[in-house]
Specification:
By secondary structure, the chain is of the alpha+beta class. The protein has one domain: Lipoprotein localisation LolA/LolB/LppX (outer membrane lipoprotein receptor (LolB), chain A, Clam), CATH 2.50.20. Helix content is 25%, strand content 47%. The longest helix is centred in the first third of the chain and has 40 residues.
Length: 230
């Protein structure tokens, strides 16, 4: 082969490589989303220990850590979740965040107060992110990049980068990265890039999938508190 012809062949190969990678990535993403569709169809409920670490780099560096146990349940199109916070920066600080029946509530027993967010139902798809969401549901709300497999705590996950399609969400949450267990439709790790030097890393351990949940984990009744703020 002449030197000139060799150069032409090499040039074509270099130009074609990005197209091959792009096609491979697209096929891999569709395979990932299809596996999530199948796993989500089997998803009913999950409980898990969680650790939420919020980090701020600007204007003043700061770190806040909350730990506790979270619960998720889906029945048809209905979805519920509750995060029972036990400690805040290592100190006991019981709080309960709950999304149930289209309402988002925060119960703070230390100050005997319940805060009710009545317009939270439109954020249900974002709240259930990584727990029972199908591939189609993710694709409906996010532009997705499949960054490939990664093992976390001995479990093979698929690392996905999500950018919200809704401009309002994207403004406040520029990017989310999640590590999905494709067999159970659950997330073992999430990183929320909240912009302006702030991010939140969520890790989940001791997951129990499709097993009975403790009674009343989603229930926050107004009678539980002296003050109700809406």
């Amino acid at each position: 082969m002449s030197l000139r012809r060799l150069f032409v062949v090499a040039s074509i190969a270099v130009m074609a490589a990005p197209l091959v990678r792009s096609a491979f990535a697209a096929d891999n993403l569709q395979s990932t989303l299809q596996r999530l569709d199948q796993a989500a169809a089997r998803f009913q409920k999950t409980s898990t220990d969680f650790k939420f670490v919020t980090e701020q780099t600007d204007p003043v560096p700061d770190t806040d850590t909350m730990e506790g146990r979270a619960y998720y349940e889906r029945t048809g199109k209905d979805f519920q979740m509750a995060a029972h916070i036990e400690t805040d920066n290592g100190r006991k600080a019981p709080k309960v965040y709950s999304f149930s029946k289209g309402q988002f509530k925060l119960y703070e027993p230390g100050v005997h107060q319940i805060t009710v967010f009545t317009r939270a139902s439109k954020f249900a798809d974002y709240i259930m992110l990584g727990f029972g969401a199908s591939g189609r549901q993710l694709e409906d709300k996010w532009d997705i990049k499949d960054l490939g497999p990664e093992t976390i705590d001995g479990v093979q996950t698929e690392k996905l980068e999500l950018v919200a399609k809704d401009p309002t969400v994207k403004k406040n949450l520029p990017k989310v990265t999640i590590w999905m267990d494709l067999d159970r439709a659950v997330s073992l790790k999430q990183i929320f890039d909240e912009g302006q030097g702030q991010s939140r890393t969520c890790t989940y351990k001791n997951l129990r999938t499709n097993q009975p949940l403790p009674p009343g984990v989603f229930d926050i009744n107004d009678s539980q508190a002296q003050t109700v703020v809406r």
